[in-house]
Amino acid sequence: MTVIEAATVPVRRLEWQLAEVREIVVETPRVKSLLLHVTGWQGHLPGQHVDIRLTAENAYQAQRSYSVASPPEDELVTLTVERVNNGEVSQYLIDELRAGDQFELRGPVGGYFVWTVAMRGPLCLVAGGSGIAPLMAMLRHRARRKVRTPALLLYSSRSLEDVIYREELDAMARRDPDLRVVNTLTRKQPEGWMGHRRRIDGAMLAETCFPPEQNPRMFVCGPTPLVEGVSRLLVELGHDPLTIKTERFGPSRG
C-alpha cells in the first residue's frame, strides 16, 4: 500500500477577517482575479481555499468558498472568480466589486488537496475551467521556489479565450524545461490550432501524464463530471487511487 503524507496544516480557530480589494485582473470574458489584502492573514498552503461572506444593507448574508490562486510567497491573497449564471455572489464579485471595497474572509481551509515543494515525485495536474485556480497556486509556488520537480498541467477549456492565466502559463512553460502545459479546447478552436480538440479521455491521459511507475502526485480539479471521469481513467491506466487527489467545483460556488 502506498502511503501519502499529508501536508502539515496548523490547527487554529478560524475567525472572519477583513479583506480589501487591492487590484482586479480580467482573466477571460467571464473570469476575474481579485488581489486582496487580508487583515491578520497567517499564510496558506498551495491548494487550500477560503470562505467569503457578503453582507447586504438589509443584513442578508451570502457565503461561498473559493480556492486561493496565489502562492504562499505572495503578500496579497488572490481569488479567481468565474461568473456563474444566476450566481448571486459571483455576479456581485465580477460585476460590482471595485478596488478599495471590502468583505469578510475566513481561512485558509483544507489540508488534503495541497502540494508543497517538499513532496517527492513528479507533479501531474488536471484541470477543467476555473478548476485551474488551486493548481495555479501549486505551479506558482513551484516557480517561486525554483525547484526542478517535473510537472505537467493538462487543462480543458471551451475555447482559447476561456483559458485562464493563458499568458502566464505560456511564459512559465517557456522558462521552465521541466514544466509541460497541454491545453485541450472542447468547443471552439482558432484557425491553425494544433492541440487537442476534445474532452479529456484515457488516450489523452496516457499520452500526456507521467506513467504509474514514476509515482506522480496527481491533482484533479474542475466540474464534477470531469473530476470523476479523469479519476476513474487514471485508475484504469494503473495509477494508485491513493495518489490521486480531487476537488470538485460545482454550482454551489456561484
What does this structure look like?
It is globular and about 55 Å long. The protein has helices spanning 88-95, 132-145, 166-175, 202-208, 224-236; strands spanning 17-28, 31-38, 49-55, 61-67, 77-82, 102-109, 123-128, 151-157, 179-185, 217-222, 244-248. With 254 residues, the chain is an alpha/beta fold. It contains 5 helices and 11 strands.
Q: How do the helices and strands line up, and which of them pair or pack?
A:
Blueprint: E1 17-28, E2 31-38, E3 49-55, E4 61-67, E5 77-82, H1 88-95, E6 102-109, E7 123-128, H2 132-145, E8 151-157, H3 166-175, E9 179-185, H4 202-208, E10 217-222, H5 224-236, E11 244-248
Parallel strand pairs: 7-8, 7-10, 8-9, 10-11
Antiparallel strand pairs: 1-2, 1-6, 2-5, 3-4, 3-6
Largest sheet: 6 strands, antiparallel
What share of the residues does DSSP label as strand, in percent? 25-35%
- Tally of structural domains: 2
SSE-based structural type = alpha/beta
